[in-house]
Amino acid sequence: MGEKGLGKLKSAGWETFDHVADIGIRGIGASVEEAFENGAKALFSLMVDDISMIEVEDTVPIECSSFDLTGLFVAWINELIAQADIKEMVFREFTVEIRGVNLKGSAAGQNWVKSQAGRGIEVKGATFTEALVQERDGLWVAQCVVDV
After folding, report:
1. pLDDT of 74-115, one tens digit each?
2. What fold characterizes domain 3-147?
3. CA-CA-CA-CA torsion for 106, 109, 112, 113, nearest 10 degrees?
4. Where are the domains of the chain?
5. What does 1-40 look like in DSSP terms, one character per residue?
6. Diameter of the chain measured on Cα atoms
7. Exposure winner among 19, 66, 124, 126, fewest CB in 10 A?
8. pTM over 0.85
């Protein structure tokens, strides 16, 4: 992604990108935490037809850790996928606090059955393919490819 692409993403905060057999997710933010939060929005934009239709009815705490920030982003995405499955929920809003390689956060949303968002693509898990977390020109980028 070039500098021109980053300028377009400043307003959106997240996007998906094509990959040979799977789909990439990318979060952009003024902080690494905001990039992680926006990466989660990119994830759930795949899993539902319309993320804006998800009501915020319940919040689930999320904690994970890893060996570096890139690993932490993959762990964050995988924990969100796991919690969505375990709690039978779909999420829309996210908070992230990162200290070193430890993350404490939350995901807010509603039960899948009650949601009017419509089912999208089934995401099986986050991979280290094209995974990175880095600062570029004052913006943080967090991305990986998810297995669909």
Report:
1. 999 999 999 999 999 999 999 999 999 999 999 999 999 888
2. Archease, Possible Chaperone; Chain: A; domain 1 (3.55.10)
3. 140
4. 3-147
5. --HHHHHHHHHH-EEEEE-SSSEEEEEEESSHHHHHHHHH
6. 42
7. 124
8. yes
Residue with tokens 């009501």: 55
How far apart CA 125 and CA 139 sit, in angstroms, is 26
Tokens (6 digits) for 143: 């991305």
Written as one letter, the residue type at 111 is N
Of the CA atoms within 13 Å of residue 104, those in its CB half-sphere come to 1
Contact 28, 37 (CB under 8 A): no
CA dihedral 120→121→124→126, nearest 10 degrees, is -100
